[in-house]
Predict the 3D structure of the following.
Amino acid sequence: MKRIAVVEDDALVREELSAILRRADYEVYEICEFKGAEERLLALSPDLVLLDLNLPGASGFEICRSLKQAGSMPVFVLTSRDQMQDELRALKLGADEYLTKPCRAERLLARLENILKRYEGRRNLLEGEGFLLDRQTYTLYIDDTSVILPKNQGKLLEVFLTRRDQILTKEELCLAVWGTAEFIDENALQVNLTRLKKTMAAVGMRQRIGTVRGEGYRLVISK
Amino acid sequence: MKRIAVVEDDALVREELSAILRRADYEVYEICEFKGAEERLLALSPDLVLLDLNLPGASGFEICRSLKQAGSMPVFVLTSRDQMQDELRALKLGADEYLTKPCRAERLLARLENILKRYEGRRNLLEGEGFLLDRQTYTLYIDDTSVILPKNQGKLLEVFLTRRDQILTKEELCLAVWGTAEFIDENALQVNLTRLKKTMAAVGMRQRIGTVRGEGYRLVISK
DNA sequence: AAAACACTTACAGATGATGAAAGAAACCCG
DNA sequence: CGGGTTTCTTTCATCATCTGTAAGTGTTTT
């Protein structure tokens, strides 16, 4: 059973939405205020977030933005504000759907199901700039082709993506690959880094692994 | 540059849509009549299909249905018929978006871009009931987990999916796996089938491979 | 019961990923 | 420039996994 989180501060509307969703056999979690919603949502990790933007403030957009930044959890925006600007803004932020109230239950449910369907199997995909990485199999998607990375290369790329823009020390990288920082074989790490670099270049990724002498490595945009 | 196919029989509307899309830096292909559109679209294999349903006939829906059945090419339905029923029907058939005309160019483009973004890396995914299969790497997605199938098992599952509901003879399966039907090693095929069955059961797929004695095999829904 | 067909299991060769080792290249600092 | 340190590359043996062979076990049909 799919789990949906409803973010809405108006109790009446919230109840109604929940009822509709429950009737359609979804497991519903209600989140009553925008404050701290991001953390709760990330912890809850529902299959979809139904986000109601009724206040003029930007906090709703902010939630949408940070959710889409963090991981790939579909966000369905529902609003009473019929403003083209708002719609464009939400969509640009990565919202998966934007509907204005009032809205018939059937339409809501149909669109919701559509999105859920489209997200099947996406849960473990890490998003990079111009590519996707499957956290479990280390399948790399780029420009309509896909390649399977060897486990070690996959783990390295994964850690680079989850700690973006940070400089990662050799210890941290060893930890990510072998699960322990003890008995660090710097050479083994070095070899695996080289291999990852080579495959990244081979598939035409826009990123490369930059060396920060004496400190570690980090992912940077190529040239 | 993303390639978009516009299916629309009214020359005026078609021109206008094309102009909007070209201005937004898409490569546009115009398809002027519904007859034979499926084949042309499959051959063209654009990044997205913009499908205009202006006639009351069902042919537009038919195109949508068969496109979604065949592979996963996003379909964006644009229509002047503001009927809830039509919308629900299109969405149920797998349409990725349904907008009613008139519609501002910004909205159209924003939603279009959203869908394209969401489809990145999806091009090679074959859709099964409850799972997805990557045609290139044979990564199998099911219930938020992913597994890499060995090449032979992947090829088998692929051919079962592309020729759904058909009974496949051993010759055809051999052809799919080894590229030749000569020197068919029935036993080798048998072993690979057994292995595929085992992995399918292990990952909990709802389908299984049914045997049709004396004829071949086919994919069926489990019990 | 026998023959034909379908299935399973165990094993050995091939393929590809991995880390060890050794040496080359780049960098830093006087 | 030159020694020392750090980073990088290449080659090779080992290991795991995928694959087809072979032999034997089930199952259906006549």
The domain at 125-221 of chain B is CATH 1.10.10.10 (Arc Repressor Mutant, subunit A). Chain B has eight helices and eleven strands. The two ends of chain B are 46 Å apart (CA to CA). The CA atoms of residues 13 and 52 of chain B lie 9 Å apart.
